[in-house]
Amino acid sequence: MEVITTDAYLDPDKDKLRQFLEACRDAAEEDQHFKLVSISRSCRHLDPLAVLESIYEPGELHFYLEHPQRNEAIAGAEAVVQGEWSGNDRFAQAKAFAEDVLAHTVAVGDVEAPFSGLHFFGGFTFFPDAKQPAPPPEAQSSGQLPDPDARKTGESDVHFPYTPDDFDGEFAPATLFIPRWQVGRRGSTYTAVANCRVDADADVDALTEKIWAAYQKFLTFNYDQASPTQPRELVRRAEVGAEDGYEKLVAEAVDEIRAELLDKIVLARALDLHFDRPLKPLETLNNLRNRFPTCFSFSLENTSGHSLIGATPERLVRVHDGRLETEALAGSEPRGTTARQDAALARALLESEKDLHEHRVVVEELVSGLAELGIDPDYAKQPELVQLANVQHLRTPISADLPEGLHLLDILKTLHPTPAVGGMPRRQAMERIKGMEPFPRGLYSGLVGWFDHAGNGEFVVAIRSALVREAHARLYAGAGIVSGSEPTKERRETEVKMQALLRAILHGSNSELESHDRQL
Prior knowledge:
This protein is an alpha+beta fold. It is 32% helix and 30% strand.
């Protein structure tokens, strides 16, 4: 990547910007390959989520990731270059794509500033396949689906028609894109980035006007006042699969574990919810980031109008200045309603043979995967307790120096999926998940994140999430199943996780929320 650090093209002079873009167009013609221009500027205070809300267009690719407690957030919208892949070599294909783009990139500005310079955003689904096998007929969506005649009678404003397949195959197995507009915040530093593709036949005048207008907007950003959101009503609910199907799957999995066919498997539930008016994913995201400041709030939307939003406590990989960070997160208990009850649940978790075993499986698999890459990590021998607003977990932080030449995508390929979302042995657990769960996982329990031109980046595990499209949402939640798992307790764990998402979507009163909680 070519870097231009001079301020010559950052001064408020449209003619200089036009001259620079003309030079890039000439270079694209000479190389017979487009040039990607990335211009970074520092800004005054910007809230990346508020900026994304203001420029949000349904059906355009967008990305958002925030960790409120760390005071870090980054957003990107609209794609100037993108790629999609599938298969077991999807991470390698994504890496080759990124290397090719960087080889033809010209970056202007201080690329060492936080969240400046060229960034790649995207996601990787749980399975590497483009399409999962269809579930058996008995595993299809159950519960009360919308009545097609309701539109005629005015009984409901829910959008029709709707079929369970609306949420199938919504994301490619691997997606990366470079956004047209990018905004980031780390601490008190704010950065705006404009990216544009310059082809040999590019309209330089049009590109100049677009970039110029963008920076004028970001330098003096005006947050338009939106009208208050009205509470939404949940008008239909449908368990994907039989109402008692999850408990039966857990019992079946426990039998297989006791027969030593598996050591652990993570099984998920899904609920299809239908509301009386279209959902606004970024408003739900704002509720999640406010309620779960120690989690990663995230959103990824594709060109079909599907948004996966959530607040995950689990980071798979962070790379910063040559240092790798990952973590094992497995073993759960709900939070108590009183201090004594909460403390009792925490102690039970820390002393639970079942949960400690489940956690050790994840730690051992992560350490083994890193060893394959020549990494000898540092980690504590005993897990720590992590307490979120609605649930508490066992966690073991793991860190190491990153060997030279090892890319973040190489690490993702080796570690994903961890036993925290898949199981052990990995191949057998993934095959059983395909055969047992009555829905395709898609991006749920996959990876969402970013990496930059310098190899820094962060990917989180897309759990505690909902897939949103118009007035419909599919909520996901899973639980780790080992030999000591009890079907009723595991279902209750998924309910606690789903309630947090439902509350963020509804914006309703406590009484309304309690009524909907009981429906889960």
